[in-house]
Amino acid sequence: MKRFAIFLLSIGLTACGGGNMEDLQRFVAETGKDVQGRVEPLPEVKVYEPFTYGAFDLPDPFKPRKLTTGGGGGVQPDFNRPKEPLEAFSLETLKMVGVLSRKGVIHAVIKTPDNAIYHVRKGNYVGQNFGIITQIGDTEVTLREIVQDSAGDWSERTSTLILQE
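The chain above was modelled as a monomer; its predicted structure follows.
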């Protein structure tokens, strides 16, 4: 039985080999004749030119500038006075929600972004630009702010908080 299995196996293996492969060779030859290999040339390499950075004496544009107490003459904020609570908020986030009068002194009612309510009067400081309240009307609070420009000089500007309905 063992001999018979070996005999069948050898016949099967001889049947697989050595056949006619003309059709395969013809197919490969026909398919390959239309193909033309073309490789694009490499791009020209540019010569590296070193650049010398010469702006070490200029201020770094990626670091925040610090306010300076010195500078030219004119208006300057008082850096030595204690800060008031409303100076922690930018003026754009504060809302005037009312006006009241106590003992003849007019107070404005200011609401902060965290919904805290403050009563301020003429002379109080508000906002982050050293804003001092100069006038309180029925519908608005007028402030005089001291801001620093890009050259480091201080200047005054007038801002208002309008009553929010």
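The longest strand covers residues 140-148.
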